[in-house]
């Protein structure tokens, strides 16, 4: 049996497992794919104290750091259910059931994709999902933001301070973002907002993005915009479908946590992009993983 069982091998889970192991706790980590979203990231410039790194390189360092400790790494294993019956039980897809005194959930999230031709081909080559991460790569260039919700309009305002011009493409007739954000975006000279626009294809020159095609849903007319970058902001989906009913989730499916990472189920903690904690970033995920592990340690010495 484990003292601390971590679900997820991204930055949150890696940090949680190191903090737990350093307390002398018997720690295991179950990960469908060690590294998480970081494994899919090209350049990383905002991991403080490291001026520049690349996703796969950071994943190798994360794994090497975890392996410094006596952590049982169960990679390529998917958790499918969580129960508490005295001990906490984690069921894996392969049928195994692991018992633990505490669990730290850090299954992360995935960006909702447009699912149009060119999106996968040019991912990291102009197609981006994180304005805080990749905005500066498009300094002085033209970009589009897909999605007119809060994250899309915030991204447009953020990017407008860096890039030459931002076009927002929104599928619906109205923007869903808060009025104060829409007002701010409308006041900025280098933001153009187009509603009733259905993105249909990311175009490129074979090595990087050079534009986007969209259809005007009112008239059916096809349009093309020349640009260097496309920020897809149509939602971040937490990987928590399997936790429904086990721990309390927000309406968006995020695991509800308090300031110590404690969930609604005593002894079960959570960290990273899968939680209600705002701002989804590597450094924030790591910090919350450390918090959750210390929270779990506190819980264990009291129970
Ligand atoms: P994740 O990294 O999503 O890891 C989740 C882990 O849980 C994975 O190991 C996954 O396999 C596992 N898992 C999920 N479900 C299960 C299950 N049921 N059973 C077992 N394991 C499971 N942030 C920055 O700070 N800087 C950047 O430059 C940056 N660039 C980015 C670029 C891209 C393309 C993307 C997608 C994200 C980027 N981010 C960046 C965001 C950053 O990657 C995330 O905030 C961070 O990885 C979140 O960490 P996490 O540990 O919470 O989750």
UniProtKB/TrEMBL annotation:
Q: Does the keyword NAD apply?
A: yes
Q: Which UniProt keywords apply?
A: Disulfide bond, FAD, Flavoprotein, NAD, Oxidoreductase, Redox-active center
Does this entry carry the keyword Oxidoreductase?
Answer: yes
Occurrences of domain FAD/NAD(P)-binding (ranges): 2-289
Which cofactor(s) are needed, names only? FAD
Assembly, in brief, is: Homodimer.
Family membership: Belongs to the class-II pyridine nucleotide-disulfide oxidoreductase family.
Protein task: Serves to protect the cell against DNA damage by alkyl hydroperoxides. It can use either NADH or NADPH as electron donor for direct reduction of redox dyes or of alkyl hydroperoxides when combined with the AhpC protein.
Task: Specify the protein name.
Answer: Alkyl hydroperoxide reductase subunit F
Q: What is the lineage of its organism?
A: Bacteria, Pseudomonadati, Pseudomonadota, Gammaproteobacteria, Chromatiales
Gene responsible for this protein: ahpF
